[in-house]
């Protein structure tokens, strides 16, 4: 079975330390992103596990009236319901013992009305006092006991929608793709209940058909049910989802939804208006040579989104002045002295639904490049075996980064994206497709246009191949403007990507070759660099002995190598690490390896020739949930690094690097979650031992959940960079951020926020020396000089409300 691939497993990725340990989805399912679970004897060739069982079927009867958990006293349906509900039993383990019956019994009852699908999980437990649950914000349940249904209404075995509930009734939902696993940025409207009993716990899911996309005639749907028992590191599935087969939906069962065409399905229209009122005081640096403070009192704005679903499966979205203000903050990452750009996930609602329709082997649409839209429209959906995605949206940001008087001042960029793919294969051979994609950004007479073809070929139950070939053309916007959206001149060139994946019970492999020409540019997508030929090979091998102290152990290797088109080596990263999976979701993995980075005059540094920097490293990755009230993720490394930010006129040089990434989450009481993050990156020169720079991040997030809808949250974060001005061009910076937020969120789309944000930076209180008689900064003196004290350069008090109307 193939779960979400992190690309680096327990070890190091090609371009950054493995940040997957800081993912909120740190249950076993995400934990084994590149590890394929099963049961075998500890020998050179593991014992072959049992063959996958045939997919199972279940009928979903039409009910006379809705049901609730009150209809299941003693965790048994009332007698009058016994013959009116679909009934599923015999859940089978995927982990830790592939193919074995679940250690605890699980039953599912199914039914539907003309309005919604009803699913009741009965999770029997011989030790109900050990059930893990807490009252949390929506989707923060993946360290608890929880149950999941993954629905694939189109039975394409590639895309699904997951609904999850913990014993407290807290929801999580996600868009599932076989290539990338669960995407929890997806949100939908549905209802849930949870209840702990003397025999275990129960969960109810009520999923309106208006919240689902499905074929007009109803018919059969694909489905997977599963239960997570974190104290046993156990996942139980119906039907059986074998660890020896690539994919989850590729092994799905069937729900018979006969007569669904007469139900009130996903023919619907949704309106989601919002209003925002705020007081704001902030430092404006649009013109870096003339910063100033802006104060706005009782400023208001409004906008909204509209959605229409045509023929149950085609979704039309429109937005006017979309609500893209930041309520959720990004998880901290290392961003100082990075050779390549850092990827941040999308959090904004307009871009999230059906985002997988724009996914290709290369990331040609990275919507965080679209910063401040005013108008936008999108069409996504499925007709037969054809998947369609069209996006048109503007962006006010480029025209607001230049001064009044600039010919492109207040002009907007335009983004146009089109994607179409065709599913191939039948039955269990589904999962292959071919597709086309085109992106276009236009601004100020310039453009960036990218187009090409891609494919996914599911060769058998273990092997999958993906590939893509694209070409770009880019022209600079008008040269009399200070805007720098596109590179200067005219650029054009191809890029290609080929991936091979092997998933199995004990052995998994991933290999990706990428060739990006010097002229290739994508301003709509995410690429780390051009002019590169790279190969990334990752493999794992696991053994599954019957041992009370650990559930499996294995070896992982990572090889990343890249050259530019002139034959100069860019980097070579090698990682080797053994790992052990223990009960209670605990992973231990010592890491060893050697990295090397090559830089030269082609990178803009004053070097006479290419210079290779060798960076040996070692460290440890550990994570787990030893107690129900606490979980942790730790990565500590001693390694080499390169100073990519030397003093002007100097060449890069080798550094000794100590880095720590630590996340500790504590639930002292059921309603309170305390997430603590610490990042450390300390670098010394290898010759002389002087400190070059040190960055630290301390972040605490406290969330108190009064009810499932009402919550209060406080975030406090301290970021600092200590820099040696004799050895690096980095500046000494300190920042303190504080956020407080009260939320009422009965369901996605309807929400009330009352929030306060405050930001302190170590700027001098005299941000510049002005020219006498003007408000202009004197360029002969420092502008925004750093000081020892703090300057409040941003504070905001806001109230935001939105309401979802569906008809």
- The chain-level structural class is mainly beta
What's the number of helices?
Answer: 1
CATH level-two architecture of the domain at 49-262: Sandwich
Low-confidence stretches: 1-55
Query: Helical percent range?
Result: under 10%
The total beta strand count reads 39
Biggest sheet architecture: 24 strands, antiparallel, barrel
Overall shape: it is globular
The CATH class of the domain at 49-262: Mainly Beta
Radius of gyration: 27 Å
**Termini separation:** 40 Å
CATH fold name of the domain at 49-262: Immunoglobulin-like
The average pLDDT score comes to: 86
Structure description:
The protein has 807 residues and is mainly β. The chain starts with 27 loop residues before the first helix and ends with a strand. The chain is 0% helix and 50% strand. The strands form three sheets. The chain has a 24-stranded antiparallel barrel. Strands 1, 3, 6, 7, 8, 9, 12, 13 and 14 form a nine-stranded mixed β-sheet that branches. The protein has a domain of 214 residues: Immunoglobulin-like (Sandwich), CATH 2.60.40.1190.
Write the layout of secondary structure elements.
Layout lengths: L27 H4 L25 E3 L26 E3 L3 E4 L10 E7 L3 E9 L21 E7 L6 E7 L5 E7 L3 E3 L7 E7 L2 E9 L10 E11 L4 E5 L14 E5 L11 E16 L7 E19 L3 E7 L54 E9 L2 E10 L17 E12 L7 E12 L2 E13 L4 E13 L14 E13 L4 E10 L15 E12 L8 E12 L5 E14 L3 E14 L11 E17 L2 E13 L11 E13 L5 E14 L5 E15 L4 E14 L9 E15 L2 E14 L22 E17 L2 E2 L1
Parallel strand pairs: 1-14
Antiparallel strand pairs: 2-4, 3-13, 4-5, 5-11, 6-7, 6-12, 7-8, 8-9, 10-11, 12-13, 12-14, 15-16, 15-38, 15-39, 16-17, 17-18, 18-19, 19-20, 20-21, 21-22, 22-23, 23-24, 24-25, 25-26, 26-27, 27-28, 28-29, 29-30, 30-31, 31-32, 32-33, 33-34, 34-35, 35-36, 36-37, 37-38
């Amino acid at each position: 079975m193939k779960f979400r691939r992190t690309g680096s497993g327990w070890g190091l990725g090609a371009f950054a330390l493995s940040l997957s340990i800081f993912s909120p989805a740190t249950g076993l399912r995400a934990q084994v992103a590149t590890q394929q679970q099963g049961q075998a004897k500890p020998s050179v060739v593991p014992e072959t596990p049992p063959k996958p069982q045939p997919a199972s079927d279940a009928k979903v009867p039409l009910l006379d009236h809705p049901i609730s958990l009150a209809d299941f006293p003693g965790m048994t349906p009332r007698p009058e319901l016994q013959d009116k509900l679909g009934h599923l039993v015999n859940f089978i383990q995927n982990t830790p013992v592939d193919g074995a019956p679940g250690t605890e019994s699980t039953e599912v009852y199914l039914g539907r009305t003309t309005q919604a699908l009803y699913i009741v999980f009965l999770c029997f437990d011989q030790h109900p006092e050990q059930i893990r649950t807490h009252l949390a914000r929506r989707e923060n349940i993946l360290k608890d006991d929880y149950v999941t249904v993954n629905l694939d209404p189109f039975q394409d075995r590639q895309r699904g929608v997951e609904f999850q509930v913990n014993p407290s009734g807290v929801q999580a939902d996600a868009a599932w793709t076989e290539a990338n696993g669960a995407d929890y940025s997806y949100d939908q409207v549905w209802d849930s209940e949870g209840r702990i009993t003397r025999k275990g716990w129960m969960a109810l899911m009520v999923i309106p058909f208006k919240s689902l996309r499905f074929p007009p005639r109803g018919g059969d749907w694909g489905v997977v049910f599963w239960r997570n028992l974190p104290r046993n590191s156990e996942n139980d599935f119906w039907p059986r989802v074998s660890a020896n087969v690539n994919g989850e939906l590729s092994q799905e069962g069937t729900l018979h939804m006969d007569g669904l065409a007469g139900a009130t399905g996903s023919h619907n229209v949704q309106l989601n208006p919002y209003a925002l009122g705020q007081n704001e005081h902030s430092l404006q640096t649009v013109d870096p040579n003339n910063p100033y403070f802006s104060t706005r009192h009782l400023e208001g704005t409004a906008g909204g989104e509209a959605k229409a679903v045509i023929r149950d499966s085609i979704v039309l979205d429109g937005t006017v002045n979309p609500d893209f203000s930041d309520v959720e903050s990004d998880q901290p990452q290392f961003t100082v002295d990075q050779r390549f750009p850092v990827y941040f996930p999308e959090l904004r609602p307009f871009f999230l639904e059906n985002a997988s329709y724009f996914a290709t082997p290369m990331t040609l649409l990275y919507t965080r490049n679209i910063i401040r839209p005013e108008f936008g429209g999108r069409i996504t959906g499925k007709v037969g075996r054809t998947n369609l995605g069209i996006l048109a949206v503007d962006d006010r940001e480029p025209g607001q980064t230049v001064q009044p008087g600039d010919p492109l001042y207040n002009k907007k960029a335009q983004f146009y994206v089109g994607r179409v793919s065709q599913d191939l294969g039948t039955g269990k051979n589904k999962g292959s497709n071919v597709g086309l994609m085109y992106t276009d950004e236009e601004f100020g007479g310039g453009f960036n246009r990218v187009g090409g073809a891609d494919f996914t070929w599911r060769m058998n139950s273990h092997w999958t191949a993906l590939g893509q070939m694209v070409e770009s053309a880019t022209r600079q916007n008008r040269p009399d403007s200070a805007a720098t959206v596109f590179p200067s001149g005219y650029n054009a060139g191809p890029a290609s990507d080929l991936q091979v994946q092997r998933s199995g019970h004990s052995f998994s492999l991933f290999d990706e070759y990428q060739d990006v020409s010097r002229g290739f540019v994508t301003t709509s997508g995410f690429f780390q660099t051009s002019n590169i030929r790279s190969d990334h090979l990752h493999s794992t091998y696991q053994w599954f002995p019957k041992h009370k102290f650990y559930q499996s152990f294995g070896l992982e290797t990572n090889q990343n190598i890249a050259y530019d088109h002139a034959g100069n080596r860019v980097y070579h990263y090698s990682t080797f690490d053994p790992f052990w999976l223990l009960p209670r979701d605990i992973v231990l993995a010592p890491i060893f390896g050697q990295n090397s980075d090559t830089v030269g005059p082609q990178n803009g540094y004053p070097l006479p020739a290419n210079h290779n920097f060798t960076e040996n490293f070692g460290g440890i990755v550990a994570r787990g949930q030893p107690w129900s009230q606490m979980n942790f993720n730790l990565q500590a490394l001693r390694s080499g690094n390169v100073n990519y930010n030397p003093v002007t006129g100097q060449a890069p040089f080798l550094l000794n690097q100590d880095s720590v990434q630590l996340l500790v989450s504590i639930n002292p009481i059921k309603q309170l979650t305390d997430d603590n993050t610490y990042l450390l990156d300390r670098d010394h020169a290898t010759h002389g031992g002087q400190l070059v720079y040190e960055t630290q991040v301390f972040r605490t997030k406290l969330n108190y959940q009064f009810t499932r809808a009402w919550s209060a949250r406080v975030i406090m974060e301290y970021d600092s960079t200590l820099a040696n001005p004799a050895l690096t061009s980095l500046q000494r910076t300190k920042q303190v951020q504080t956020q407080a937020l009260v939320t009422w969120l009965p369901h996605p789309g309807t929400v009330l926020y009352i929030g306060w944000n405050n930001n302190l930076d170590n700027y001098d209180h005299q941000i510049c020396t002005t020219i006498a008689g003007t408000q202009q900064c004197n360029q002969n003196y420092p502008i925004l000089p750093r000081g020892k004290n703090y300057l409040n350069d941003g504070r905001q008090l806001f109230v935001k409300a939105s309401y979802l109307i569906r008809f």
